[in-house]
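Q: Could you fold this chain for me?
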Amino acid sequence: MIPISRAAHLNSIRLIATDMDGTLTIDEKFTPQLLQAFDRLNQARIPVLIVTGRSAGWVSGLVNYLPIVGAIAENGGLFYQGETQELLVPIEDVKLHRQKLAEMFLELRSSFPQIQESHDNAFRLTDWTFDVFGLSVEALEQMNLLCQRNNFGFTYSNVQCHIKLVEQNKAKGLLKVLEKHFSPYKLEQIATVGDSPNDESLFEKFPMSIGVANIQHYQTQLQHLPTYITTQSEGLGFCEFVDAII
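A: Sure. Below is the predicted structure, expressed as structure tokens.
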């Protein structure tokens, strides 16, 4: 990973697609520095698109409060722009899909009885989440294998574990949204920013990928690392990236 201070072609960036928790937040909160960074990007006419693992219910509200052009929720499951909700994955019957996700969660809990359903799980449509706190890397790897055997995908962030469709990830969701809503932008004009394993697809598919410094906690767990890295962690790292662009 190359320090962001040595990044080339920063002046070619025309859109930023960024993770939220651990990337924009500091101690799980938005800060005045972040909002100032958003304001500076708006003045520079560089739109921001959030790509998060957070729930449909949470993101549908958030998209109306932050100065962003839209938000992708549930790791590529849905896209929100204003009052519009758009499903990005092939789910014909959401109720039946949620039932199958719940069954997979119960199977995982039979092997890992300590796992607890996330508080926001009731507000989700395309995935099922439980808290990641206290789980070892070995346990997470075993859960991934169990999900694969049952034809489900699995990923995790610094907040939650996600049971989902195999083909559901942030990069695929983002590419669909870019093609439909932001087609004038070329791939090399888009910067992706993240901090944890559920951002790995963004690091793999986009050449201008940035990890805030706390991505180093997961360095040995990732097959695809970001191209660049900030010196500071969480939201301070994102602001450092904005400083480098501006």
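A (continued): The chain has two domains: 2-89+168-245, 94-164.
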